[in-house]
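Colleagues,

For the teaching module next term, I've prepared a clean inverse folding example: a structure given as tokens, and then the sequence designed for it. I'd like students to try predicting residues themselves before seeing the answer, so please don't circulate the second half yet.
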């Protein structure tokens, strides 16, 4: 864990510079994003900025530091979106949704002028979805129907169960989360489109082209840009 923390801190520190001169900031969900918020707060980099969050957890973390969350109802386009990922491959494709905030995360990423993702070296994989299943958010009433559709496609699928609560995980937007292992012979881009075409599916945790910049932090304190698109 100490090596992971050093790697995360290296990536977070590098990402802080992207806050300069930008006003409307979107923030993802998870421990790496919270570390980014904490370090930005300590340096005074969040003052006078409007902050838009992807989950109640991130909003509560901001509130503890004295910041208010700006509603997405008041936002059309963000200047910057900062988040992390559960897995990143060498092509810059990502898997997200371990915190069940995938729908809001993708919404903010899709509507941001610049999207910066921060990961530690241990999140970089040769192939996505080997260690982790794909989170898929569905309308609650469609749960069993979508499960059947997924299994007919040759995927393995099961509702994610809550810790400390009976029943499935419910996201901040009210969807149920299904964890899906894709068919071995199907390309991720094709599977992503197939998932989104299923009636009842709200969103998926496949973030295949949502990153402009991916910063990888290493245990020795170094960083590498896995992906960097100039805008």
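(Answer key — instructors only)
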């Amino acid at each position: 864990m100490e090596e992971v923390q050093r790697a995360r801190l290296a990536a977070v520190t590098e990402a802080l510079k992207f806050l300069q001169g930008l006003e409307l900031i979107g923030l993802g969900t998870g421990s790496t994003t919270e570390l980014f918020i904490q370090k930005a707060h300590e340096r005074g980099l969040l003052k006078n900025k409007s902050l838009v969050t992807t989950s109640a957890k991130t909003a509560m973390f901001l509130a503890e530091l004295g910041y208010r969350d700006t509603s997405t109802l008041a936002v059309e386009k963000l200047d910057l979106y900062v988040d992390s990922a559960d897995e990143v491959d060498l092509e810059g494709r990502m898997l997200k949704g371990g915190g069940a905030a995938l729908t809001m995360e993708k919404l903010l990423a899709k509507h941001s002028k610049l999207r910066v993702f921060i990961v530690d070296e241990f999140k970089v994989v040769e192939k996505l979805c080997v260690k982790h299943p794909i989170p898929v958010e569905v309308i609650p009433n469609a749960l069993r129907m979508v499960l059947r559709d997924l299994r007919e496609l040759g995927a393995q699928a099961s509702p994610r169960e809550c810790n400390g609560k009976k029943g499935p995980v419910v996201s901040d937007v009210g969807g149920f989360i299904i964890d899906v292992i894709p068919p071995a012979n199907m390309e991720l881009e094709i599977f992503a489109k197939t998932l989104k075409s299923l009636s009842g599916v709200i969103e998926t945790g496949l973030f295949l082209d949502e990153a402009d910049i991916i910063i990888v932090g290493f245990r020795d304190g170094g960083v590498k840009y896995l992906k960097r698109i100039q805008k």
